[in-house]
Amino acid sequence: MVQAAKDLNIGVSFALTEEQQMLQKMARDFTREEIIPVAEEHDREAKFPKEIFDKAFDLGLVNMNIPEAYGGVGASILEECLVGEELAYGCSGISTSISTNNLGALPIILAGNEKQKEYWLGDRLMGNREFVSYGVTEAAAGSNVVGMETRAEKKGAKWVINGSKTFITNASHAHFFTVFAKTDPSAGHRGLTCFVVDRNTPGVSVGKKFDKIGQRASDTAEIVFENVEVPEENMIGQLGQGFYLAMSVFDHSRPGVAAGAVGLQRRALEEATKYAGEREAFGVPIAQHQAIGHKLADMAINYEASRLLVWQAAWAVDNGINNPMFPAFAKAFAADMATKAAVDAVQIFGGYGYMKEYPVEKLLRDVKIFQIYEGTSEIQRNIIVRELYRGKK
User: Fold this and answer.
1) Which residue among the candidates 138, 374, 378, 387 is catalytic per the annotation?
2) Which domain holds residue 61?
3) pTM, whole model, 2 decimals?
4) How far apart are CA 313 and CA 324, in angstroms?
5) Phi, psi for residue 375 in degrees, rounded to 5
6) CA–CA separation, 390 vs 108, rounded Å?
7) Which of 151, 182, 204, 245 is at a distance of 20 to 30 A from 309, taking alpha carbons?
8) What percent of the chain has pLDDT above 90?
9) Helix (H) or strand (E) holding 315
10) Which residues neighbour 103 within 8 Å (Cβ) at sequence distance 6 or greater?
11) Are residues 119 and 141 in the same domain?
C-alpha cells in the first residue's frame, strides 16, 4: 500500500510501516497475554501493576519517548499512540500506569539540559527502572494552571518549594516528580517554573491514594511539599517559562491519552458486536434489530474517526507542526465518543451490562476520566475556539 501510494504520487497514506505494524502486533499480543487475564483482579483490588510494568519495560513498551542516546527507543508520538491504543484495549487503568513515565519525563525531554537528561532519563528512568510523576494539578486550580498556589522561592543557591499537588498518577510509586511552581506570583503565566524533585528529599510526602470509580489499577494520590529544598541544577528550562513548557507537554501527551480512549472504544465495539451477534430476541440476533444495529454502526464510525484524529494529531507533533487544535480535536472527540461507546455497549448488553461479570461494566467506569484528565473536554473546546479566532480582528 505504501509503494502503491508512491507510484501514484499520492500525498497521503494511512499505511503503517512494517516496523510500526510489528510494534502494534507486539503491543496487541502483550495485552492479550499479560493484561486482559489479570485486568479484573487489578480493578477489583485497585492493585498497582508493577509486574506488568516490568514485563512491558523488557519489551520496550515503557519510557517509549526517551531518546536512544539515554537508553530509550526514541519512539515517535504516532508509535506511542499505536501502543497506547492496544494497552488501553486491555485495561485503561493498567495502560495509564505503564504510560505515565512518558508524561513525567516530557518536561526533561523538551527543556532539560544534557546533564539533566543523562541523569534523570538515562540513569534513573532507564538504568534504575524508576517511576516519575507529573505535578501540575492542584485542588483549587485544576484546569487553571496559572492559578496554582505551589510556590518556589530562591534562598541562596537553592529553591524552597511549598504547596501540594493532587490527582497525581503513580504518585505512591514515583521516585521523583516533575513539579511546576510559582517563582514570581506577580508575573501571571510568566511566573511559573518547572523543577525535578526527588521523592527522598526532606519535606516531600505522598498522601493516601484516592479510591476511584474507575481505572482503579492506576495509582492516584496527593503530593505535599513542606520547605522542600532543591538545588538550582534541578530547574528544568528557563526561569518563568514553566507555563509554556506545560502547554507544550500537553500538546505532546494528549494524542497518547486520546489513543487510550480509542482503545477503550474498540473494546466496547468488539464486545458489543460479539454479544449482539449471539443474543437473540424475537427470534433473531439482536444485531438484526435496527435499534441495535445502528448503535453498532455509530460505534464503528466514531471509532474510525477518533483514530484518524489521533493519528493526525500525532503526525502533526512529530512533524513539528505547532497547532494545539490537533491534539484538542483528538482528545475531545475520542474521549466523548469513547464515553458514548461505553454507554451504548452497556445498553446493548441490557441488564447483563450492569453486572460486574461482564466486561462492559468496567469499560463504563473506566471511560469517564478520559473526559477529565489532561484537560477536560470543555478545556479542549476552549482551546479550539481560541485557535479559531487567533489572529482575527
Assistant:
1) 374
2) 2-127
3) 0.94
4) 9
5) 100, 115
6) 29
7) 245
8) 93
9) helix 290-318
10) 134, 169, 249, 253
11) no
